[in-house]
UniProtKB/TrEMBL annotation:
InterPro entries: CheY-like_superfamily, NreC/VraR/RcsB-like_REC, Sig_transdc_resp-reg_C-effctor, Sig_transdc_resp-reg_receiver, Tscrpt_reg_LuxR_C, WalR-like. The modification 4-aspartylphosphate is found at residue 75. Residues 163-186 are annotated as: Disordered. This is Response regulator transcription factor. It comes from Streptomyces coeruleofuscus. The keyword ATP-binding does not apply.
Length: 252
């Protein structure tokens, strides 16, 4: 078993953002070179530190429960226990104290995306997304946000509203978005809808801020308000709501 780095004073998830301590990360991947590459890049970030590594899913779950990192980076195809099951055990709906999990994989398959998000993951990245997006995903997860590879996001969410006749191939059930039976008691403002539309197209908070000529903190404020109004757990559910209700179109 890989020996973890001793935890710092901010041991519980989310403590990094509140106390200014580095974001504590666990990396789980069965390939030594991948773990080494991720560790090398993330440890070079001033606000991130890798506290543990695991070679398989069982080891990842055990280390995560013991070390309580702020963010867990999990591969999908691992021995003993795959990343989807590990995600469910660490962040699933039945977990009393869920952790922040970002799934990082080589395989751009819809069933993996759906499985990861339904299992509680707050992010989904392809390994070829690049180191900058990896660090962004870690920071987003630690802040209670979500990040899905832009190449995956629009395709994933378009499936929510795709006409049944357009493609009759069976697909896994997408992550369940918030779908209130009655109209929203407090409607979204026009500016909140602007933010929602960009979230639905896979834009990051920084890209939304630039597109709308507002500050990053303003975007975060709007997103917090939107989450409350939609009863959405994360930006993935916000985006799904936008696609279901006709507030987003690719290329818009």
């Amino acid at each position: 078993m890989t020996t973890p780095v001793p935890p710092g004073p901010a041991g519980e998830p989310g403590a990094a953002g509140r106390r200014g301590a580095p974001i504590r990360v666990l990396i789980a991947d069965d390939q030594d070179m991948i773990r080494t590459g991720f560790r090398f890049f993330l440890d070079a970030q001033p606000d991130i530190t890798v506290v543990a590594e695991a070679r398989d899913g069982e080891e990842a779950v055990a280390l995560a429960r013991r070390e309580r990192p702020d963010v867990c980076l999990l591969d999908i195809r691992m021995p003993k226990l795959d990343g989807l099951e590990a995600t469910r055990l660490l962040a699933g709906p039945d977990v009393a104290d869920p952790m922040r999990v970002v799934v990082v994989t080589t395989f751009d398959l819809d069933e993996y995306v759906y499985g990861a998000l339904r299992g509680g993951a707050c992010g989904f990245l392809l390994k070829d997304s690049g180191p900058t997006l990896l660090a962004e995903a870690v920071r987003a997860a630690a802040a209670g946000d979500s990040l899905v590879s832009p190449s995956v996001t629009v395709r994933l969410l378009k499936h929510v509203t795709a006409p049944a006749a357009a493609d009759t191939r069976p697909r896994p059930a997408p992550p369940a978005p918030p779908a209130p039976a009655a109209p929203l008691r407090e409607p979204l403002t026009e500016r909140e809808l602007d933010v929602v539309r960009l979230v639905a197209l896979g834009r990051t908070n920084a890209e939304i801020a630039a597109a709308l000529y507002v500050s990053l903190s303003t975007v975060k404020t709007h997103l917090s308000s939107v989450q409350l109004k939609l009863a959405a757990r994360n930006r993935v559910e916000i985006a799904a709501w936008a696609w279901q209700n006709g507030h987003a179109r690719a290329g818009r």
